[in-house]
Amino acid sequence: MKFAAFFRNLNLGHGNAPSRAVLEDLFLQAGAEAAASFQTNGTVAFNARGGTRRARSILRGVQAALQLQHGFVEPVFLRDMAHLAALAASDPFRGIAGDAIYDFYVTFLHADAAVPLGLPVTNARGDVHVVAYAPAEMMSFNHLRGKSMGNPQVFAETLFALPATTRTWGTVCRLVDKHG
Question: What SS3 state is found at 140?
């Protein structure tokens, strides 16, 4: 089964982050059948025989190795490729356009995040706009306000009081196209 791992605050080659080759090797050592780092933002596509339970075990192994070998302690968010393909096919940003939009995003929420009805659809500054909440993701766009742009990840982490990680919509779609 194919999965994607989305690490929070892991930028390959920066600070205490591993190289692409090292990260992929950590997945293989932890039991993945195949692993491919996607871009440099801590996104990894991997295959795990045994389904979601096995994929979670692999991620625990990778996290332990990252902590031991690199001092890297951040959460990772697991999604199966079929889920990501369905998300991409749903096209949540269809029909949304405007010169003021900076980019479209998917924020991967923590497993403990409860997504009740009535959550806010914009942050206090008004520079992050949520298009849709799903049980495991928040789809949003942002725009510049002054010289800074809204940050969907900060908004989600504040809203749920739990860690999250964010990727651009384009990254998610390219990941699905290549590995889905």
Answer: strand
Q: Give the distance from CA 162 to its chain's centroid.
A: 14
**Torsion region of 60: left, alpha or beta (phi above 0 gives left; psi -120 to 50 gives alpha):** alpha
pLDDT tens digits along 91-128: 999 999 888 899 999 999 999 999 999 999 999 999 99
CA quadruple 133, 137, 142, 147: dihedral positive or negative? positive
Q: In what order do the strands lie in the sheet with 76-80?
A: 34-38, 43-47, 2-7, 76-80
Cα–Cα distances (Å) from 164 to 77, 119, 133, 142, in that order, read 8, 16, 14, 17
The closest alpha carbon to 128, from 152, 106, 108, belongs to 152
